[in-house]
Amino acid sequence: MSRHFGAIRQLGYVVHDIEAAMDYWSKTLGVGPWFYNPKVPIKNYVYKGEHYEPHNSVALANSGYVQVELIQTRNDVPSMYRDFLQAGRTGLQHVAYWTSDYDADLARLTAQGFKTVMSGEVGEKGRFVYFDTEYHPGTVIELSEVAGPKGRMFDLIRAESETWDGKTDPVRPFPDLSKI
Q1: From which residue to which does the signal peptide run (predicted)?
Q2: Could you tell me which of 157, 126, 150 has the C-alpha nearest to residue 34?
Q3: Beta partners for residue 61, in sequence order
Q4: Half-sphere exposure of 168 (CA within 13 A, CB side)
Q5: Number of helices and strands (H, E) in the chain?
């Protein structure tokens, strides 16, 4: 457990082929079911101080308490994911810590010297920020708000993983965040 952030809650992998990655993780590693969104609705996205409109596909599943995120960029919008790929890397790109007190945690971490590189939001109370903190080549730290619908979706994904039989519906659509 990190003294600064708490427990690591998510491992984020940047991949070239998200469908192949979901297939590998479910069939070979037994991780699933995957909740897949071919175009995540990211609002207020900022990278290095500039606003962009990214098109990222994301799949989420849990392995025990830890969530695995697969990310495939679908356009050439500047991002830490694109930087990771352009550096010739694939695989683990970030570790994420979750918070229900985003403003306080972000202020505390900023005061400790953490610098924001990329941020945005997915749903109400679903803000996220990536810091300029490579602790391993290419791998950075994300702080993710999970106080609203995004948090309820993450709870649902974890619950589904606990009862998944390893075969039935290995890939499922993201739930509608406006309805949970």
Answers
A1: none
A2: 157
A3: 68
A4: 5
A5: 4, 11
Q: Residue 22 is encoded by which pair of tokens?
A: 């979901």
Measured over the CA atoms of residue 98, residue 123, residue 90 and residue 76, the dihedral's sign is: negative
pLDDT in tens, 34-84: 999 999 999 999 999 999 999 999 999 999 999 999 999 999 999 999 999
Judge if the upstream peptide bond of residue 170 is cis by omega within 30 degrees of 0.
Answer: no
Q: Pull the structure tokens for residue 178.
A: 């406006």
Cβ atoms 128, 151 nearer than 8 A? no
pTM here is 0.94
Question: What would the two tokens of residue 135 be?
Answer: 């602790």
